[in-house]
Write a structure and sequence with these properties.
The structure holds two protein chains of two kinds. Helices cover 83% and strands 0% of the residues of chain A. Chain A contains three helices and no strands. By secondary structure, chain B is an all-alpha fold. In chain B, strands 1-2 form a two-stranded parallel sheet. The longest helix of chain B is centred in the first third of the chain and has 50 residues. Classes of the chains: A mainly alpha, B mainly alpha.
Chain lengths: 76, 578
């Protein structure tokens, strides 16, 4: 495979998650009272996005390590 | 042409634009990265048959997660209640399992590059040409409708310029397909899938919390449905289908199971190249068979993401009217169901998460558009251009034609989008023609794969007869609230009146399938077989050796256990929400 799709997916969710989580802290609590039943949904979901992104990136790393272990064996 | 915004529902902030911009950067970046690895026509049109099952499966669901799914199913949930889940638990899962277990071995094993090409190998050139032509026209129209719906929605809810929305969305889709072909489309569908799920999930959870959980939702909807003379009908799937008058769709269980669950569903999931192309991009036979089976998992959970918002919206509107849900209202005092999803976004998501929600909507329209365009360029290049205009085309020439076709396909789609903006009825007309052409298709594939005596003439005239049956049926019936005419039916002579247009469509599909099935059998028996048995190996069930068990994957990940588990889960969901 030419590109591991989990890499861009992971990077996108990590970047947008951190952006959301940080932005969420700057928002007036009144906005959350008006929209999201008083919960800081930006920060909560920003963290969820970031964790999802990190899991994707860890899966990419695990695959690369496994492939790099396999390739010397194949050569020998 | 610029359509003035009717009512701007949402105001975006810089953070929302930043998330939307970030999404476009990643979408285009995926196309640009894949461009360097694209060498042959197989890479461009078939992803070099190299992708793992889970990617193909998410692409399979993602390509289908277009405008109709997200906006349309939320609207359907509000209008018809949980009965809309039939489009998943009855109208998708069984057909996807059948595709994975029984039909993929023929599509993938015969090494055809498209569904029309299978028809050529199994039947003859004229059946392939008929299918390829009708499919090409349908996909390009579908893409245009997606484009129109996206531009119209963004114009209405954000006040963005209609032309700019249309051109920008087409350009982004064009660039990433032009650069990376089918792989780029599928990879982006994977990103779009995750974005749609994670982008819309907060909306559902906040909505449920607001209405008092599932029990609060049921309580509000019980009161709403009792007020409409159908108590309990909005929160059940089968309990109110003994009599068409007892449910909002106006259809009985047989029409649902036979019309939607068999003819329409199998006709779409088992023969439509748009979705099958994703499974054919898999790296081997096992992955190709597992693609639709793995895809059943997100598919059967999708109602909670797209139909439940519709239920929440109607419950909120019933509880507190426009004060509880700021949704545009039509002349008859009913909420504008197509605005259910945008209204919920406006209510529950503050700036930040709102940007994610809007990006998810944009992603859903673009994935629908891209799915149609990649299927169109493959069918045009292989089944029409290479066959009729340049049989000796080199591989590099086919890639060039494929790229040019992507440009032309999007230009035609844009023309269709503008036509849809000018003439309201054009979308109804297109849907109607789709119904005529799609409904009989499955009969030909079923006979072709499981009856060795079916002939080329039988298949061709079966399709023609099936389409005619659909047209005649539609000409003799009409939905109760409509005036007889070309689009709504009854233009020959009204012989029967249906409680809803959906009931009319389901029964039309049953007639079209029966017409095609019987027509194909009679004409086949009256004509000589045009293929020797030797030629039918790998194309017909009884002449094809059984596939060996794939020992490279765990027993529970093999096609048969996966298929059984998917069917059992689907039955369980139907029972839980009976």
């Amino acid at each position: 495979m030419s590109l591991d799709i989990r890499l861009p997916v992971g990077l996108f969710f990590l970047a947008s998650g951190l952006l959301l989580a940080g932005y969420g802290l700057l928002v007036d609590p009144e906005v959350y009272a008006r929209h999201s039943l008083g919960q800081n949904v930006n920060s909560i979901w920003g963290l969820i996005f970031a964790v999802f992104g990190i899991i994707m990136l860890l899966l990419v790393r695990r695959t690369r390590i496994r492939e790099s272990r396999q390739s010397p064996k194949e050569k020998s | 042409m610029t359509t003035p915004p009717s009512s701007v529902l949402l105001e975006l902030a810089w953070v929302d634009y930043l998330i939307l911009g970030l999404y476009f950067v990643f979408v285009l970046g995926i196309g640009w990265t894949l461009k360097k690895h694209l060498r042959t026509s197989s890479d461009f049109f078939e992803s070099g048959r190299s992708l793992p099952a889970w990617i193909c499966a998410l692409g399979f669901v993602g390509a289908n997660l277009g405008a109709q799914e997200v906006i349309g199913m939320a609207a359907s949930g509000a209008k018809y209640g949980l009965l809309s889940a039939h489009f998943y638990w009855v109208g998708a899962i069984p057909a996807m399992v059948f595709l994975g277990l029984f039909m993929m071995p023929f599509y993938y094993g015969s090494k055809v590059r498209s569904v029309p090409e299978y028809l050529k190998l199994r039947f003859d050139e004229k059946t392939r040409a008929l299918n390829a032509l009708s499919f090409a026209v349908m996909t390009v129209f579908s893409s245009g409708i997606s484009m129109f719906a996206l531009a119209k929605l963004l114009n209405a809810i954000l006040g963005w310029n209609f032309d700019v929305c249309l051109v920008a969305s087409s350009l982004v889709v064009l660039v990433y397909i032009y650069a990376g072909g089918l792989t780029s489309a599928i990879y982006n569908e994977v990103l779009q899938f995750f974005l749609i799920v994670l982008g819309l999930l907060p909306l559902v959870l906040l909505g449920l919390q607001d209405i008092g959980g599932w029990s609060g939702l049921e309580k509000q909807l019980a009161s709403y449905s009792a007020g409409r003379g159908m108590p309990g009908a909005w929160t059940s799937t089968f309990a109110h289908t003994a009599n068409p008058a007892d449910n909002p769709i106006g259809i009985e269980w047989f029409g649902i199971v036979a019309g939607l669950g068999f003819v329409l569903s199998f006709g779409y999931w088992c023969t439509d190249f748009l979705v099958i192309q994703r499974a054919m991009a898999a790296k081997d036979m096992s992955a190709a068979r597992r693609t639709p089976l793995i895809a059943t998992v997100p598919k059967m959970l999708m109602p909670f993401l797209v139909i439940v918002p519709g239920l929440i919206a109607i419950a909120l509107f019933h509880r507190g009217g426009s004060a509880d849900l700021p949704i545009p209202v039509t002349a008859d005092g009913q909420p504008d169901f197509n605005m259910v999803m945008p209204s919920l976004l406006a209510k529950y998501l503050p700036n930040g998460l709102l940007g994610v929600g809007i990006t998810a909507l944009v992603a859903s329209f673009m994935s629908g558009m891209a799915g149609n365009v990649t299927a169109f360029n493959t069918v045009w290049t292989y089944d029409l251009y290479q066959r009729w205009f340049k049989p000796d085309a080199s591989d590099a020439h086919l890639v060039r034609v494929g790229r040019l076709t992507t440009v032309v396909g999007l230009l035609i789609s844009a023309a269709c989008a503008y036509a849809a903006a000018q003439f309201n009825n054009i979308m109804d007309a297109v849907q109607l023609v789709f119904g005529f052409v799609n409904a009989p298709l499955f009969a030909v594939f079923l006979l072709g794969m499981f009856w060795r005596r079916a002939t080329g003439h039988g298949a061709f005239f079966g399709l023609v007869l099936g389409t005619l049956s659909a047209a005649i049926f539609q000409g003799c019936t009409v939905p109760v609230s409509e005036t007889p005419g070309l689009l709504k039916g009854g233009w020959i002579s009204v012989q029967h009146t249906f409680a809803s247009s959906m009931a009319q469509n389901f029964w039309m599909a049953i007639f079209a399938f029966t017409g095609c099935f019987l027509g194909c059998i009679f004409v086949s028996l009256a004509t000589r077989p045009n293929r020797k048995e030797e030629e039918l190996k790998g194309l017909v069930y009884s002449l094809t050796p059984r596939l060996p068990t794939d020992m490279s994957v765990a027993w529970y990940a093999r096609p048969v256990p996966l298929g059984i588990a998917a069917l059992a889960a689907s039955i369980l969901l139907n029972l839980i929400f009976w």
